Amino acid sequence: MDDHNQSSFSEIVQINKEELASGYPKWFRVVECLALIAFFVSTGIILYRIFLSIPDLWYLLLPASLLGWIFSDFIGGVVHWAGDTWGSVDFPIFGPALIRPFREHHVDPYAITRHDFIETNAACALAGNPILFVCLFLNMGKDYKVTSFLIYFVFFMTIFVLFTNQIHKWSHTPNPNRFLKFLQNTRIFLNPEHHKIHHTVPFNKYYCITTGWMNPILTRIQFFPRLERLITKYTRALPRREDIGIKAAEKLI
């Protein structure tokens, strides 16, 4: 660890974990429940349409599911990065509902293991609903191979994205069952040791939390640091300003 990073780490200041935990809005719980209902209704309709199209388009299932699995890791990583890096829990609506859980997780990584299914996964359903809604109106069938593949891909991707945070939660679970351990050890699900890299201060790498497959690639090309520098250049916003404190964030810019 170089002297620059060591000095930055000594400046880290985070929000109190009890304050963050108590900030889960009751109104957002209602929104989350409605989002899950809408999500499962939409995916149910799309799944029925996919089932009807399988005799003609069965060969699209495997590539669409694999692509959806890979993209779910990437999309989850981008959302994770955005929640960790930008914004404040004091922002109206988005702050307490969507940004707060990211801040809480760095202060108390095991808090996620105490969240129920709704608190863990419903925000992902909320994000996926607009995309699923559009897919409900796209044509599907042997005469519409391109849009059919798109619907297959979006269906699998949103299903995988829905459970991204559940997989993330399992990576923090102290004693997962044997099946989960197998999935984690084979890197089908996020591996806990791999994820520890993200939880090393200043929490600025390895954001992908479905499989983690994209993490080495995005780190090698410096995807997130370059994106941060671009955003900072044009907005003057300071990455991780609230997550680790102003002084530490300024030293790492």
TrEMBL record:
Identify the domain of life.
Bacteria
- The UniProt transmembrane annotation reads 27-51, 58-82, 146-163
Topology relative to the lipid bilayer, per the entry, is:
Multi-pass membrane protein
**Key words of the record:** Membrane, Transmembrane, Transmembrane helix
What InterPro entries does this protein's entry cite?
A: Lipid_desat (IPR019547), Plasmalogen_desaturase (IPR052601)
Domain Lipid desaturase: from-to ranges: 69-241
Alphabetized Pfam families for the sequence: Lipid_desat (PF10520)
Compartments, record wording: Membrane
Protein name listed in UniProt: Lipid desaturase domain-containing protein
Organism, by scientific name, is Silvanigrella aquatica
